[in-house]
Amino acid sequence: MREPDPVIAQLTGPDGPFEIVVEDVLGKPTQVYRRRMRALGDVLEQSAGRDDLTWLVQGDRRLTFAEHNAAARRCARSLRALGIARRDRVAIVSANCPEWVVMFWACALIGAIAVPLNAWWKTEELEFGLTDSGARVLVTDAKRLELVRPILGALPELEQVFVIGADGDQGGVEPFAKLLGDSAHAAVGAEVDEDDIFAILYTSGTTGRPKGATITHRQIIANLQNIIVLGVAQAMRGTPPPEAKADVQSASLLVVPLFHVTGCLSTMTVNYATGAKLVLMPPGRFDPVEAMRVIERERVTSIGGVPTIMWRIIDAPERADFDLSSVQRASYGGAPAAPELVDRIAEAFPNLRKTLTTAYGLTETASVATAHGGDDYFAHPGSVGRPAPTVELKIVGDDDREQPTGSPGEIWIKGPNVMAHGYWNRPDANALSFTDGWFHTGDIGKVDADGFVYIVDRAKDLIIRAGENIACVEIEHVLFQHPDVVDAAVVGVTHPVLGEEVKAVVQVKTGAAVTADDLRAFCRIHLADFKVPEHVEMRSDALPRNPAGKVLKNLLRGGESAFAVADDSAL
Q1: pTM of the complete model
Q2: Rounded to the nearest 5°, which phi and psi values hold at 402?
Q3: I need a surface site. Which of 86, 130, 287, 436 has the fewest CB within 10 A?
Q4: 72, 109 in Cβ contact below 8 A?
C-alpha cells in the first residue's frame, strides 16, 4: 500500500483544517470535505471584505470586487425579470472579457445553468450547442453574433440575445448593458442544492458531436478546495504563495479561454475565491510579446495555461526586453508536457523551480484530478502527479480489474469533482462512461510505487492540440461529405509545442483534381479552425484496415503518440 503524503494527511485527517470524510452523494459513497460551501453564490457573498481590491483587468478596463459583484447582482435581477429561474440555461459565447465573468456569477446567484460555448466554433457547431442545451438566453459579442444571426430563427427555445459592446438594438437583439439594470443591492439569492447542475461544458467526444458535461456546484467547490489544499501544502513545505505577504495581491494572467475548465474553474474561480487579481489578455490570437508586456505592467505573479503557452513565452526572442521578475508561480495542464519544457522553464525562470506545478484533469472532472509541483515535478518530469486530496484513482485493465503497480490500463476516477449527472441528453454515453460511480477517462496510464501517475496513451479517438480536445470522427464526417473523397481517417501527430497536430489521410477518387488546400478549405467551412487538418496526405490506394474493417491508425500516424513523453525509468 502506498504511503500517503504526510502534509496532505495532516491537513485532511481527523480534526484537520480540511478534514475529509465519506458521505453519500446521489447514492454513492464519496470523499468530501466536512467543512465546505454548498453553492457558488456563497463564494460571491463571502467576498465582501475585498470590495476595494482590483478583481478584473483587461487593457484599460478595471473592475474592483465591489464593482463586479454589483454588476453580477444587477444581471441576476434582470435575468430573473426575464423569467429565467433555477435550472434554466443561459448560453455565453464570446472572447474573454469582464462581461463573461459577470454572467458566470450572475447565473450562480439565481441557480441558472451557465452554458459557456466554444468561442472558436463555427455556425453549425454553435447551432448544435444552443439547440442541445435548450438555452433561453444568449450573451454574445459582435463577432459571434454574425455567426449565430443566420440560425436565430431555427432556435425556438432561445428567447433573448444580448450583445457585449453593442450601443443599441441590433436587428432584434439587445445590448448587454440592458442586463445591468439599476438594482444592485436587492436580494437575488436562490435555493440551490450542491448537486444542482451549474454549467454545461461541451467537450469533444469519439462519436462526433460534442458532449455536454454537466458540472454541479459541488464539483466546482470541490475542485476549488482541492486546489487550495494543494497550495497550503506547498506553503507548509517552505514555498508560500506570493499573496502570503501582507502587501502583495496575487495577480494571475489568464491566457486560455474562459469556456475551458482550466480557464474558468482552475484559474478564474480560484482567483476570485482567494482575492487575487485576474488579468485578461486582449481578445485575439495569443501574442507572447503582448503577454510579457502585460506581465510587466500588472506585476503578474502567476502564469499558466497549457504547455504551448509556456513554450511560446520561453522561445520569444524579446523575452530579455521585459521585466518578468514578478512571476513567482507557473502552472499548466490540458496536455502532457515534455521533460525538455520543464528544463527550459527552470533555465528561463530559476525562481519558479519550487512553485512550478502541472495538473491532469478533464472537463468531466471539473478540472484537476492529479497535480504535483516543486521538487516532485523535477524528480518525476514525465508524471502528472498524484491524485488531488478527495480524488480516488485506479488503473483498470480490459477485464475491468484494477491493474498492479506499474502496469498500464485505463484511468478511472471517482470523487466529488466528477460529474454525477453525466452528459447532458446522452444516456448512451453515460452507460459507457461510468461503472459504480467511477468515470472512465479514456486515457491510458500507470501508477508507480510512490503514487505518481503517468499518462502513456489515449484509449479514445481524440487529439489534444494546444489543450483543445478534438474528436477525429467529427473531422472524418466532414471529409466524407466532400464529393471527391472515397475514404478518410484522422490522427494526431506529435508536435514539440502544440503537443499534437491534426493529420488527415484521405483516399480520393481516381482522376480527382482536388488538392490538400481544397480539403482544408472545405473543412474550414464546417469546423472551428483548430480542428482543420494541418497535414493532409492524399492517396489513391485504400487505407490500411484490419480484418474487422477498422482503420489501422497507428500506421497512419507513424506508430507514435503525444504521450510518449512519459518517463518509464521512474517506475
Answers
A1: 0.84
A2: -65, 135
A3: 436
A4: yes
